[in-house]
Amino acid sequence: MNLLNYLYKNKKISIDSADLNLIKNYKFNSITSNPTLILKSFLNKTYNLLLNFFFYKNNKKILLDSDIQISLYDKILIFIVGNLIPFINDKISIEIPARISFNYNLIIIYSKKIIFLCNKYGININKVLIKIPGTDSGIKAAKKLKEIGIETNITLIFDINQVKKCLDFGVYIISPFIGRISDSIYCKYDSGVNFVKNIYTYKNNNNYKIKIMAASFRNINQIINLTFCDCLTISPIYFLELLKFNLKLLFKNKIKKTLKINFFNKYSSKLIIEGIKSFDKDHKKLINIISTIINNL
């Protein structure tokens, strides 16, 4: 058995993509999405026919983008989710706009808006997670959302302080970004992998129920070393490598010793801000593409 099939069998694999054709061809357990991934799918023309149908059916005079009111972008987002969700077994993460990552009230409002639209268009909200960056406002908002029955995926996790808050607040799942940690902090045994091993141990030792979804991989070895996680969300570029990897090799390899290291705010704050800026930049590009489409109808 290869490693990819093992991950499928144990329902641990999530796809970090919004490519409809790809998702139709593989039986993923879940999907994580963000403006960058949706933008890629728009640019490779995955949604051409669906978008034509969408714009034919929807009023193009409503607001293009909005934090509070229902906008055309919101409808497109939920339309895409509605087309993806039949092909997954578990949950899809729908990301809030990066620009509101530090605004507690707007995060709550936007999350409720997403759930309202899911209900309106017949999407099972039990299969939906609101994806929120792990800012202080975002994590506090996740606590409030849980109290009203809305589950979240807290992303851009780089710091043990973020993790502890998420654990205490009982959020559904957290997504530590392995690759970005490894890029920024040197550690003999891979700082990103080591960080996840440490928080997983902390979680289990304290009997927390939160799930850990390892994300943002830089190489196949990081995936191999984190197969114990509740879920792995991987980029399409690693599929062929996983298919080639013999599972027997995984069990022959001894797990390397972990090295405890502290992640200080000077690192995590920078990484969170960089991640938010990147998502916001691609969100704006996506809005510009939608605007161009509308103006040329």
Question: Could you please describe the fold and organization of this structure?
Answer:
The protein has one domain (3-295): Aldolase class I (TIM Barrel, Alpha-Beta Barrel). Mean pLDDT is 86; it is low at 252-264. Helices cover 52% and strands 12% of the residues. Strand 3 (92-95), helix 6 (104-120) and strand 4 (128-133) form a beta-alpha-beta unit. The protein is of the alpha/beta class and 297 residues long. It has helices spanning 3-9, 20-25, 35-43, 48-57, 72-84, 104-120, 136-147, 160-169, 178-184, 191-205, 220-224, 239-244, 247-252, 265-295; strands at residues 13-16, 30-32, 92-95, 128-133, 152-157, 173-176, 211-214, 231-234. The longest helix has 31 residues, at 265-295. This is Transaldolase. Pfam families: TAL_FSA. InterPro entries: Aldolase_TIM, TAL/FSA, Transaldolase_AS. One of its GO terms (biological process) is carbohydrate metabolic process.
What keywords describe this structure?
297 residues, alpha/beta, TIM Barrel, eight-stranded parallel β-barrel, 12% strand
CATH homologous superfamily annotation: Aldolase class I
Q: Any idea of the CATH class?
A: Alpha Beta
Strands ordered across the widest β-sheet: 1-2-3-4-5-6-7-8
Measured by DSSP, the beta-strand proportion falls in 5-15%
Please give the share of residues in helix: 40-55%
CATH architecture: Alpha-Beta Barrel
Regions with pLDDT < 50 over 5+ consecutive residues?
252-264
Organism: Carsonella ruddii
Protein name: Transaldolase
Keywords: Schiff base
